[in-house]
Amino acid sequence: MNMNETGSLLPELSPQYDPWDPIRSYRKYGKHVLTSVELTITNLCNMRCEHCAVGDSLTMSEGPRLPLDMVLRKLDQVEHLETISLTGGEPSYHMKTVKDYMLPILKYARERGVRTQINSNLTLDLARYELLAPYLDVMHISFNYLNAQDFHQVGFVNASHPISYETAARMYERMVENTIALSIGGLYVSAESMINTRTFDKLPGIHRLIEEMGCRRHEVHPMYPSSFASHLPMVTLPQLRASIHRLLDERNKDMWMLFGTLPFFACNDQADDLALIRRLREEPNVTVRNDPDGRNRLNISTFTGDVYVTDFANEPPLGNVHDDDLDTIFARWENNPLNLRVNCFCSEAACCGPNLLVADSYYKDVDFKNRQAII
């Protein structure tokens, strides 16, 4: 039996239907509205990846979470809710959290007709993931490796004590085995790869492994300086372009490839940028997702109730669920100077502009609101 075959009448996820992309709700409502909520379920993780965007918030222990009924009540108040994402740390770190917190949220979402995603490393026992699978739309994993050696080098750089290669290799093998098992069972597994100095010339090989594991989608995002990754060297724009072209040359064209947070825009006047954008538009089963963070999504800490633009934000919280409903907090963000800086929209290019990390990394002095699409 297909593990997530639960009679949902929602359309199948596809390049034509990506409910996490804020451009859908923008076109529907004429402005950005809150359609997506991300819940930080835990700050515990059994890995310490060098690229982790929330690494600085990871802990060895944590206190109580918000009561489940309060979380569900706050979700109920979001008028246009379409997606819920559960993230961490490793959300399924404790089986009690899986059974008593995550599973009820997923069941609530399924009953309401809301799509769900869990961000996991899939390195724990398969049984806990199988509990969640019947009620889950997307299992999202990070995959930036060609082998167990890469996994060992990347996954434990910031660990508090040395992790042996043998331990890392067992975790890598379990992750691969779990991904294959869940994919065979019918769960939609989407693997994300970061383009960084370790991976920019390895993406075709990484893509082939993702295909072999049965993943339905390959997500590709450039790495930007945040948290554990804040000190790592960034790839140059020419390297990024070359890496994407090489991946497009060698990929499986039947698999959905989703790019996100790309620093290339149809209003750029560089020929190389425009050539890449044209190719991305023309390639079959390729999409470029506009960043949900700060567009149609907010992140909630289930420990404090604080609400942020994103789970890796360095900015102070926009509010707290103890004081306001989420739609009210989102409305407050609409007039925030940070949002006004990058909140542009181009219908011709199907583009919602750069997010704050992209703007700070490559376009500090550019006002995108005064630019127009060239193609």
UniProtKB/TrEMBL annotation:
It holds the Pfam family Radical_SAM. Residues 29-258 form the Radical SAM core domain. CDD domains: Radical_SAM (cd01335). It comes from the Bacteria. Keywords: 4Fe-4S, Iron, Iron-sulfur, Metal-binding, S-adenosyl-L-methionine. NCBIfam families: rSAM_YfkAB (TIGR04478). PANTHER family: 7-CARBOXY-7-DEAZAGUANINE SYNTHASE, PROTEIN YFKA-RELATED. This is Radical SAM/CxCxxxxC motif protein YfkAB. It comes from Paenibacillus aestuarii.
